[in-house]
Design goal:
Blueprint: H1 6-12, H2 22-38, E1 43-51, E2 56-63, E3 72-76, E4 83-84, H3 90-96, E5 110-112, H4 113-116, H5 118-124, E6 132-134, H6 135-150, E7 152-154, E8 158-160, E9 166-168, H7 177-180, E10 186-188, H8 200-203, E11 225-230, E12 235-240, E13 246-250, E14 257-263, H9 271-274
Parallel strand pairs: 1-14
Antiparallel strand pairs: 1-2, 2-3, 3-4, 5-6, 7-10, 8-9, 11-12, 12-13, 13-14
Length: 275
């Protein structure tokens, strides 16, 4: 969620247990504007927190003018001092998906695949390299996985220019209350997959400037999102049941929206059996 509206946004998602101490809020209020200045970001989002056994990782994301371009991510233990994370790679993501259990809260901690899954270690690692993965790499991959799976925005909040770049839609004034309660009104803010498989006839009904992302209505498994009205019906809140801890909010008829993650960084693999 946007750094500048963080205090108000946290109040809107507090019903799901998401929250920060007054000290952490004050620290973010000081450090995030400095991040934006020092790294020359056009926008800075506070992404959330992954809770480890011995400590928590607080995550921030920085964006340039093109929102579809690679976003830069940073982590902190105290919300004041930030360390830049390297971009996630396919190999990094593949390895991280084999790991289970809590984060330790130590970026230098090493996971030994030979002890966890010997067969996977033989496939993923060369014979000359030790089958280990540092927690910092797992952190990078997990943030990428969560963003791709459940990082969402309202329909119309962003537009795609004829040159292919994605910009904030200055004319977006929020969804109506009726539309805000529909899963089809929210898009995954990542490279579309289902949209590419649509027929030309199906695409004919879409506006290419705003409908260039995948909507949530076809997410698998069905029922992986909880849609609720809170604050007396003034706020629409979506919670992911696949990545427990991801909360999205939108105030209908306004530009206020965003998502935040407060969890352990573990995917709910039991969800298909729970629905």
């Amino acid at each position: 969620m946007e750094a500048q509206c963080l205090p108000a946004a946290l109040a809107l998602v507090a019903g799901g247990g998401a929250g920060l101490s007054p000290e952490k809020r004050a620290a973010l209020g000081l450090s995030l504007p400095l991040l934006q200045r020092d790294y020359r970001f056009e926008r800075v989002w506070f992404w959330g927190c992954i809770q480890g056994v011995r400590g928590a990782y607080y995550i921030a994301e920085g964006f340039g003018p093109n929102r579809a371009a690679h976003r830069r991510r940073l982590y902190s233990f105290n919300c004041l001092d930030w360390s830049l994370l390297t971009p996630a790679t396919r190999e990094m993501v593949a390895r991280a998906q084999l790991l289970t259990g809590r984060f330790q809260g130590d970026p230098s901690f090493e996971y030994n695949f030979a002890e966890i899954n010997a067969e996977a270690a033989e496939l993923l690692f060369d014979r000359d390299t030790e089958p280990v993965m540092k927690e910092e790499a797992r952190l990078i991959a997990t943030i990428e996985l969560i963003d791709k799976a459940v990082g969402i925005v309202p329909r119309g909040a962003f537009v795609k220019t004829p040159l292919g770049s994605v910009r904030e839609n200055r004319h977006f004034e929020g969804l109506s209350l009726v539309e805000a309660k529909k899963l089809s009104s929210y898009f995954h803010f990542t490279e579309p997959v289902n949209l590419k498989n649509k027929t030309l006839l199906e695409k004919a009904d879409l506006d290419p400037s705003t409908d260039f992302l995948d909507s949530l209505e076809h997410d698998i498994p069905q029922g992986s999102w909880s849609v609720q009205l809170e604050k007396g019906g003034a706020v629409v809140v979506l919670r992911s049941l696949l990545w427990l801890g991801l909360t999205f909010y939108h105030v209908p008829m306004t530009k206020q929206y965003g998502y935040i993650y407060f969890g352990t960084g573990e995917k709910n693999l039991d969800l298909p059996f729970m629905l």
